[in-house]
Amino acid sequence: MNNKNKKWVHYCLAASAFYLLVSFGSVSAQPSAENINGVPVNMAMEEQLDDYLNSLGEDEDSKAILFNVLENMSAKTAIATRARAKSYEVSWYYYESETELAFEKLDELLALARESEIADVKAEAQATRVEILQMEGKYGEAFLLLNDVEIPLSNSRMPRVRYYGHNLISRVYADWNRYDDALRHLLLAQDAVNETNNERTPIRQQYLDYSIAIIQSELKNWEGSLKTINKAIQSAKKNELEYDLPDFYLHKSYVEAGMGDRDSSLDSLKKAYDAAIKDNRTYLLPVILNNYGDHYMYEEQWEEARSHLREALELAEEVEDIWMAQTIYFNLGFIDVHQGNTEAGFKEMREAVEFYREEGIKTEVEGLLGELAEAYEFAGQHQNQAETLKQQMELMEELYQSDQQQNLANLQQLYESKDKEQQIELLERQNHLKEQVLKINKQRNMIWLLLGIFAVSSVVCVFFMYRKAQKANLRLKAANSMLADQSLKDPLTGLWNRRALQKEMDERKKHGERRDAATQSDGLILLDLDFFKRINDQFGHAAGDEVLAEVSRRLQMICRDSDKLIRWGGEEFLFLVRNVDDENLKELSERILNELANKPVRFEGYEIRVTTTIGFIRLPFSGVSEKQMDWEKVLQVADMALYMGKAHGRNRACGVTQLHVSYEEAQAILETDLSEALSNKWISMETIEGPEAPQEPL
Questions:
Q1: Which tens digits make up the pLDDT trace of 431-448?
Q2: What is the pTM of this model?
Q3: Does residue 695 contact residue 611 with C-beta atoms inside 8 Å?
Q4: How far apart are CA 131 and CA 677, in angstroms?
């Protein structure tokens, strides 16, 4: 009874994402001067690049248009136009499977960006780099490079670049399940689209509404997702852009089912079916009809469900959708089991599971195993049910471990790469300073040769040259120290960064046995500023930077010498607190709430109120060895506690204090769904309310 609507909308969104990102051309109402919002461009070439985008996939001459622009560019061509053309060149070669050449062109684009002081050029180049890394499957490297896109993007003036950058960042965050961040960047992309007014503006607005609705549903914000998808549907009808209506209605049906409104969900399915028939999108019909079957299976109207599933199966086989066909076979088997045809039903269900297992689609196998176990329970085959649930749990653990290992491997690869870059830079600086020292020594020898003739003058010269040599040596030492420190510090706040924490935890791991024997443990306090986007929107990004800097200063006043304070992400901070118990952690969390909320941040005459939401936890957690539950898993629990605090009103601290069952029993739920662990009374949670705040946090 898998509802395939959710997976289908993700597939459709991914398939159209790249085209929609690159197809955002110049703003419609171009000024007569050779600039866009003050950024110098070659307007004639910009229009040709717009033509190239509009002809992609439809016109065989699209390649000729692009390469005509590239051939006619020179060093005198506006650098923003050159960067745009080169970005498209990188993508063109990559999609032609000329990967090596694509990376060569990417290096040229990045070199061009280093020559420029224009934020749009830097943002476009770095965004192209992240885009290619994503397509190469290097997700960890792409994630860690987001900061290189976000910094210039905050000062970008061209709607095209801002749309592209924010939309891309949103997709990367969504891949890492950072849905709050993904939604924030989609809204910024929407702001960029709203600055345009041409024939493609409604299409882009619909695409963004659809993307936002999907992210809202991932966050279980059903009402927000329903409102957004309804907006997309109304826009499609108003602007006669109805091709995507079946996808919109499919997602609406999924959201309404999530809200428990089964009747509305069925009505939306009917509209999705009618829209797909109208636009001859027959490949969508198996998905829609399978969802019909899901609906009637949920209502236990077995014959009605079977009728729709048979029709869906016939269409799936007609369009050669073998994966959907197997899902339908599975659902038909589920119906057979409930209608007494047990042996045949289980045979169909197991064959579908084996099909997906052989295809290597483990996430699908995991979901089907859960439903197979449910069918075994209905049939009273409890031994088979237990064995199937055991397989499901093992597969869930395998998938989780695989994701974790892949993510850690990606991150480690990038850290090592950055280490090598820094070592090369350090060696270059050292060589440069050594050359200076050699020159000084040569000058000193010359002074000794002239000493007999110009004694007094030579003494003076020697003195100054000696001082110069001393300063050169001091500069060398300072350069070494600064380079080592910079790699571990956040440039805006001066706090430690993630790499510093990783280094700290690597050292911690070496002393695991001694630490496990200690009478006191450490603690993690993860905090995220509330409504930070509103600060940027209302007062500007300069105000946002000032808020981050001031918050950092206040947190440093709280931080003890033995503790470590890290800037964890955009508006996230992390305390690693040494030698504390639960009471100490609660007191420190409450102090942080009060310190940030009781005194507004002043910026250019404004008083900006700042509150935060906190998740805190002991490390190691509740007596569980760090060999079983390392610091990253413990921090993940604190992160889930933080988001529970967000969901319940913000301006509070939520701490997970005790585990009441064995770690082995709670592991799968504890690492994925904290609210369920709390409902099962497997854990204890403490909540500390922040100072009472007005309705608006600013």
A1: 566 666 666 666 666 666
A2: 0.53
A3: no
A4: 37
